[in-house]
Write a structure and sequence with these properties.
The chain is built from 15 helices and eleven strands. The protein is of the alpha/beta class. The strands form two sheets. An eight-stranded parallel β-sheet has the order 1-11-10-9-8-7-6-2. It has a three-stranded antiparallel β-sheet with strand order 3-4-5, with no helix packed on it. α7 crosses α8. The protein starts with 5 loop residues before the first helix and ends with a helix.
Amino acid sequence: MSVYTSRERVIAAFERRIADHPATDLRCTEEAWTALKKHFNVETNNDVLDALNIDMRWLYLPYTGPAELSAATLFSEGTDYWGVKMVKAENKYNTYFEISHHPLANMKSIDEIESYSWPSLDWWDYSAVPRMIETFNKKEDRAIMFYAESVYETAWYMRGLENFLVDLYENPEIVDCICTRIANYYYERILRVIEAANGKIDIIGSGGDIGEQRCMLMSPAIWREKLKSYTMKLITPFKEMGFKTFYHSCGSLVPVIDDFIEAGLDVLDPIQVTAEGMNPEEIFPQFGDRLSFHGAIDVVELLPHSSAEEVYRETTRMIDILGRNGGFIVAPSHMVQGDTPIENVVVIYDAAKDHTVR
């Protein structure tokens, strides 16, 4: 088999075609990034990705809006551009940021929500997109994904999770008002990024955790009735434009995976293997002929607590199951945490590289 470029390897995975070896991706907490930079003696996260020859790159826009709204959502302390406030929450391995204020929590009417100070689409540096892509591609052409965020999660960050879930049943007009605003914002921002990228973006990603360990966070019926259309606004139009599509949801969402496939989804992330119905032996026979997968290398038990040899074997096993038709991007099931041994991260990509098709 011929040797694929890094970008070609990812595109093949999205199209369920077998490449020379599986495509790869990596996400980390800041503590894990720091440890990897020290290990490879490099300066940036992108340098780490290049050192590991990771195939995908996630593009996020630089923020240029009001300084008082500049906190990165769930990644720093302060207030983000939606008005959501976050505080630091630390353990001995990682620093996290939890929501301390939901700006729409006490609003009772559509008029109140409509009069809220919603963010501007001009609060982003779209002109930075070409040079960011150039940096990603400095070693080799990579598959570039613009990750557009989540309508559902942004809505509950602003409203409060309990309020929002109650609204699905008791105040559907409030759900519609908030989600319409957010979906339109993200949709229009994607269009601006596409224009700025001038053909250099391959994938449009979005997400929203609609699953938990045993089932979905709401009934499949209420998701379809109240949230599906907003979710698919960040998938279907871009699939129709010719982009590859990617959706992230932790937990078990088996009842609605067919809905995503019908809407044009190419890749589902992260395949949380310990969640109900999400283990590879179950999920591949149901969906593997119509959907590709991303993730599946468990970050909760496997990576922090196993030997490098065990991680190598489990990565190989995941490739053998989920990647039997080429439709698998090897990656941890979420962000690598700060208590993960470096060798356990490195060996994931050794296993992918060694899984060569001849």
